[in-house]
Amino acid sequence: MTSVLLADVRPWGGDAVDVTIVDGLISELSPAGSGGAADERIDGRGLLALPGFVNAHAHVDKSWWGQKWVSYGGEPTTQGRIAHERAERDKYGIPSVDSTKAVLREFVRHGTTATRTHVDVDLGVGLRGIAGVLEAADDLNGAVEIELVAFPQDGVLRRPGVLELLDKAAAEGATSIGGLDPATIDRDPVGQLDALFEIATRRDVGLDLHLHDHGDLGAFQYELIAERTIQAGLQGKVNVSHGFALGELPSARRADLVQLLGEAGISWTTVAPPASAPLPFREMRAAGVPIGLGTDGIRDLWSPYGDGDLLQVARGFARLHGLRTDEDLTYAVELATTYGAPFVHRENHGLTVGARADIVLLDAENAPDVLVRAPRREVVIAAGQVVVRDGELQV
After folding, report:
1. Sign of CA dihedral 247, 249, 251, 252
2. Sign of torsion over alpha carbons 77, 82, 87, 88
3. CA 167 to chain centroid
């Protein structure tokens, strides 16, 4: 048994406490100065404490982070980006264990201790990308926990053999399998969804579906997914990524659809792109539709942007949705931390007894202050181990 005393920290900016950690889990919170003896003592210096950030939508296998600059090219459409990536990725060694590890290190440096990452599975890379992500994560000794989504970036039905790869990935440990714009990529929404739901049901894995289509076409696919989720008994195991159309619909249609999503137990992940329509997040909360935040791709052949800081995404969400009050600004931080728990299958993720000791310390007054300034992560603790100290990586 190993014990750590994290002394004098302020959870969410509240009263100072001592946090006792035993074997990587939080075992006790007590008033500051009252903590007992431990194998290791960390002075929290009265810093604000948050739970580790949860990146609910990433693509850590596709980055050229740490390599020379790659200029943007190709057509700026989903089909165009897919074609450009397929043509160029081998030149840059994508997927790469080293680049993946570099991105994961940036996640950790910014306080992310768990992520759900989509990993490309196609006829060119097979399952090699999944193996590379697992190797990169293993090299970081548990600093960031990984949940894998086997992702058919190049389509499902239009590429014979991809379904078999997804099935193999599910059999070999992927927590979820992905899908992509059934109507516009495969041009067969019923066929793609039937095939994916069959694998998910048979292999007892989740589904995480990229949906970029707008307007009525996007809404139609949400309805198909919700109906199949209920029929298959997969409530709580299906997620929609991006889902741009939801914020674009007329209010009555949107309200009916949000209720259907809630009944189907479907969750939603967003990267809060600035040009997108705001999500009806208050209606989604009321209907029980979980929302997670993610960084999406970071410096990859889709976009040169991104640095792995989920606080920047949370601030983007707040600005996109016009959040101003302390309560709403705190909610944006909660989306990046506590509310991310279901996306990495954690029942308890927070500064609470029994939770994995993933703790981020920042020099800030309160959660709204954290959001608007995104200050340096002074200390990051993952499963009771210090992985960032004075803003510098220790792994």
Report:
1. negative
2. positive
3. 23
* Listed range (2-6, 35-39, 120-124) with the worst mean pLDDT: 35-39
Residue with tokens 């431990």: 38
Classify 322 as helix, strand or coil.
Answer: coil
pLDDT tens for each residue of 161-203: 999 999 999 999 999 999 999 999 999 999 999 999 999 999 9
pLDDT interval class at 1 (50, 70, 90): confident
Strands 17-22 and 25-31, sheet pairing: antiparallel
- Length of the chain measured in residues: 395
- Start-to-end CA distance of the chain, whole Å, equals 22
Residue reference for tokens 């516009």: 184
- Residue 37: pLDDT band with limits 50, 70, 90: confident
Give me 148's structure tokens. 């894998």
Q: Which domains does the chain have, with CATH numbers?
A: 3-51+350-393 (2.30.40.10), 53-344 (3.20.20.140)
Going from the C-alpha of 264 to that of each of 189, 230, 241, 269, the distances in angstroms are 18, 5, 16, 16
Strand partners, 29: 19
Q: Provide the 3-class DSSP secondary structure of residue 68.
A: coil
20 has which bridge partners? 5, 28
Exposure of 334 by Cβ count < 10 A (0-12 exposed, 13-18 middle, 19+ buried)?
A: middle
DSSP character for 145?
E
User: Does 95 sit behind a cis peptide bond, omega within 30 degrees of 0 on the bond before it?
Assistant: yes
Please give the average per-residue pLDDT across 137-158, as a whole number.
96
Please give the model's pTM, rounded to 2 decimal places.
0.96
Q: Enter the tokens of residue 82.
A: 């897919």
Q: What are phi and psi of 87, to 5 degrees?
A: -75, -30
